[in-house]
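[recover] target loaded
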């Protein structure tokens, strides 16, 4: 089956046609119909379209089969009319699932080229200081690189995680690999790690710490900037969609970095987010085998009667908080 290919980049279309013999490059047809559309003020006479079909049959039958020419012209004409009714004057965000696998590369490149035209939003981020810092100790300064809103706004939701660094670039919560496992007590992790692993509820009400202040302030300024651009004046109590999606993904990562020993945390999510190959050992391989079956850490001899997905609970909690507090819900 031959696939009609229409792009807004003639060179890209030629490359795709060359790489795939099943491609019918109809991009030049679009260019000609665009000219006719402008000439006839958006209403191309039927006889003109018919003459164009005959022209294609006479000159380009080897590219566009005669039997396909009328439908190709009609399809491209509808596309041109659509473009003039709703011009692409904003960035485009398209999930990878919506792109044909055969044209993934060229389509992604064209979307990127289109979106670059809109990289005009003034940045409030200081590029010199907007960099991820590694914490050798929990009292070291915390800062995780924040994405420019132009980049975030055109990143599909399923790709937002790529804007967040791996745990190994930010911190190493525990020095013992067994501290990341659900049965850490049975594995005899050093006793001094237990308070760090289990946390202290007295810390829940602490204010922003000095080593967190610059990061916190930058995030708040960044969010306020995004809300103003997306929702306008008077929207300070709300949060824009892009910022909310980013905060949810960021919090999921940070939560997982420190709480992967929680049995309610799906194992495959933990391994994907933490991605610390140095943390793997033989004792973790058996857990991985079980994780592929039930998605959660399993301790031999114990039965899992009820698992509450901690990530889903976290996301629901934060969305509820945001509904009541706006962008402050993520602070």
């Amino acid at each position: 089956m031959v696939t009609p290919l229409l792009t807004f980049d003639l060179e890209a279309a030629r490359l795709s046609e060359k790489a795939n013999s099943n491609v019918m490059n109809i991009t030049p047809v679009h260019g000609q119909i665009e000219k006719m559309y402008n000439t006839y003020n958006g209403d191309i006479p039927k006889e003109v379209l018919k003459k164009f079909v005959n022209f294609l049959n006479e000159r380009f039958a080897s590219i566009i089969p005669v039997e396909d020419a009328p439908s190709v012209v009609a399809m491209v004409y509808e596309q041109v009319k659509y473009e003039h009714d709703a011009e692409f004057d904003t960035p485009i965000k398209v999930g990878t699932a919506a792109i044909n696998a055969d044209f993934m590369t060229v389509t992604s490149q064209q979307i990127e080229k289109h979106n670059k035209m809109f990289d005009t939003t003034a940045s409030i981020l200081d590029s010199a200081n907007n960099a991820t810092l590694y914490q050798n100790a929990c009292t070291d300064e915390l800062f995780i690189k924040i994405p420019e809103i132009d980049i975030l706004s055109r990143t599909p939701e399923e790709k937002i995680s790529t804007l967040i660094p791996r745990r190994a670039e930010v911190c190493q919560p525990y020095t013992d690999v067994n501290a990341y496992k659900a049965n850490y007590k049975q594995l005899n992790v050093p006793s001094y790690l237990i308070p760090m692993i289990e946390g202290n509820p007295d810390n829940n009400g602490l204010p922003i710490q000095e080593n967190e202040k610059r990061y916190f302030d930058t995030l708040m300024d960044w969010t306020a900037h995004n809300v103003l651009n997306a929702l306008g004046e008077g929207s300070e109590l709300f949060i824009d969609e892009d910022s909310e999606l980013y905060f949810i993904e960021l919090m999921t990562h940070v939560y997982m970095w420190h709480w992967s020993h929680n049995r309610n945390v799906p194992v495959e999510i933990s391994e994907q987010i933490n991605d610390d190959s140095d943390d793997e050992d033989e004792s973790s391989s058996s857990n991985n085998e079980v994780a592929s079956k039930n998605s959660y850490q399993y301790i031999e001899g114990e039965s899992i009667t009820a698992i509450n997905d901690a990530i889903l609970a976290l996301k629901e909690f934060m969305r509820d908080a945001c509904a009541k507090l706006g962008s402050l819900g993520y602070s």
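[recover] notes: Residues 278-294 have pLDDT under 50 and may be disordered.
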